[in-house]
Fold this sequence. Notes:
With about 500 residues, the protein is α+β, with helices and mostly antiparallel strands. The chain contains 20 helices and eleven strands. A hairpin with a 2-residue loop joins β1 and β2 (about 85-90). α9 (about 190-205) packs antiparallel against α14, α14 crosses α17 (about 365-375) and α14 packs parallel to α20 (about 450-465). The longest helix is centred in the middle third of the chain and has 32 residues, at about 300-330. The radius of gyration is 23 Å and the shape is globular. The relative contact order is 0.16. Bound molecules: protoporphyrin IX containing FE (HEM). Protoporphyrin IX containing FE binds near residues 110, 314, 440 and 445.
Amino acid sequence: MALRVKAEVWLARPWQCLRGTRALGTTATLAPNTLQPFEAIPQYSRNRWLKMMQILREQGQENLHLEMHQAFQELGPIFRYSIGRTQVVSVMLPEDAEKLHQVESTHPRRMHLEPWVAHREHRGLRRGVFLLNGPEWHFNRLRLNPNVLSPKAVQKFVPMVDMVARDFLESLKKKVFQNARGSLTMDAQQNLFNYSIEASNFVLFGERLGLLGHDLSPGSLKFIHALHSMFKTTTQLMFLPRSLTRWTSTQVWKEHFEAWDVIFEYANRCIRKVHQELRLGNPQTYSGIVAELIAQGALSLDAIRANSIELTAGSVDTTAFPLVMTLFELARNPDVQQAIQQESLAAEASIAADPQRAMTDLPLLRAALKETLRLYPVGGFLERILSSDLVLHNFHVPAGTLVLLYLYSLGRNPSVFPRPERYMPQRWLERKRSFQHLSFGFGVRQCLGKRLAQVEMLLLLHHVLKSFRVETLRQEDVQMVYRFVLMPSSSPLLTFRPVS
Ligand code: HEM
């Protein structure tokens, strides 16, 4: 009973009242004048057992970003705690990111995502760049960059994304015109989720899943279900040690492994088809990233499979949420929407002739995406395991420490972004903001799918906004929850009305 009372006290921390609270701590208010030892960093104290009980009960840590935001307000811009034997330091200022970048080695390291690694180990499968560290990560990454992230790769896959974005627009138009009111009100999340899987899958494997139509094949349905299940179970397992969850969450582990098995089966099938087609002939046209990787032969088929699975997983929940939140913010900021719509209409002819022009001819829309990711950073936080000692806020931080940079707190810090609660894309056009747009990470380990994500988001929004006005009745904020990625707790209703 005493334990329960204590738990409730701990859980009742005032994280609900963050909007409009005092400015977050800054280096000016807290950093000591002389170099201090690691132990002098303010400590975030929490009872490990109570925390574990809470995670088990809630099947995750949905308020992690708010809990950390509160801790920054109480302790200042740097604090520490430990997870087992790992020392963790949390920070949230652009200059901290810059310092982390400056000391970065050629093989920056992140923590392992235990549930995903467990599956690969158990099944004797390779890992891709998301799960690798060290020279093997470097080897894979160097061979993936030219096919996934380089401007040359973007040029090749942009027409494929454009095709899917146009199909999305056509299917939206059809739904709107079938509606007697001449407009359509919907929870757009599922549709945008299907769009991002469809576009990424097409670019990766050169194959359409048919998710924008009505009749999904049983194979596509099984694959989508497995992706959902894999993410749900990841959240349930990722915060607790495997030695505990193997006893407390056997069913969840089973579901997690089964979901991965379906995803691997799907990727295997796609890769086998691409492989066979390449062996039968030498296609002259570009047919996606996996085909390029197989044709080049610089990575083994196992490594291509491991990486294409991580690219698939990386593309599922990530682009759909910023799309939902951008449409929502534009719906409740009609002036911004109008300016973006005018920009899209002015660029329509150039983008129709060459879809790659979306990257250069839509500066305000690009700024709107940065603004969305500032307020709603899908990644939640960035992580690096230090490979050398570092000084942060005049505290000595030794090599081996895990440093977490909280993007949610960075984006809502009024000393970095004046009036942070306001959706103002223009702020990104007014001046260069060094180490402030960090939603895709930084340095050589930054998001591999960054350009694909940007192209998917820009083209979808361009096509939708030049054809429709988006409206919402909802004026209050949408709360975010942390479920492996930071996502809206509920999807806002949006109305799409044709531009007359
Ligand atoms: C708005 C969309 C996205 C956001 C905000 C995002 C964010 C991130 C972040 C923060 C990281 C860690 C970077 C770092 O440690 O510095 C990352 C890594 C990664 N992302 Fe994304 N991502 C997005 C979309 C995608 C897409 C569409 C794909 C795949 C097509 C993808 C694949 C990956 C992979 C494979 C990594 C691991 C890279 C490595 O460790 O070398 N992401 N992403």
